Amino acid sequence: MITGFFNLPWFAWAGLALIIAVIYFNLWPQKAVTNPSGFRFVVIRWGHALVWILLTISLALRGFSSAFTGMANVIALAGGLTYVLFLIMTFIVTK
After folding, report:
1. What are all long-range contacts of 11-20, with beta carbons under 8 Å and residues at least 24 apart?
2. Within a domain: residue 77?
């Protein structure tokens, strides 16, 4: 088993990220914005959960084999970019 941070297996980290993703699938920032519509609504409603799903996939890939590290890095980068988009749509874009 391949270990990650604090000498815990990557699969343990992936499980934690999955739990957080499930929480954000059920909870979302309803009071942060008023009347989002279209693409902004989709990003605000599902963006944060998608970030955690991407991190779960990235962490799980790291646990399978070190050969997947490159792919895991790309998926983690996609999660980071998704989070930036989520923040922009939540706090900067007003319409």
Report:
1. 11/59, 11/60, 11/63, 13/59, 14/56, 14/57, 14/59, 14/60, 14/63, 17/52, 17/55, 17/56, 17/59, 18/52, 18/53, 18/56, 20/52
2. yes
Is there a domain that residue 1 lies in?
Answer: no
User: Domain for residue 23, yes or no?
Assistant: yes
Taking only the tens place, the pLDDT of each residue in 31-64 is 666 677 788 888 988 999 999 999 999 999 999 9
- Full-prediction pTM beyond 0.85? yes
The answer to whether residues 60 and 14 touch, using CB atoms and an 8 Å cutoff, is yes
Number of domains in the chain: 1
- Residue 82 has a pLDDT of 97
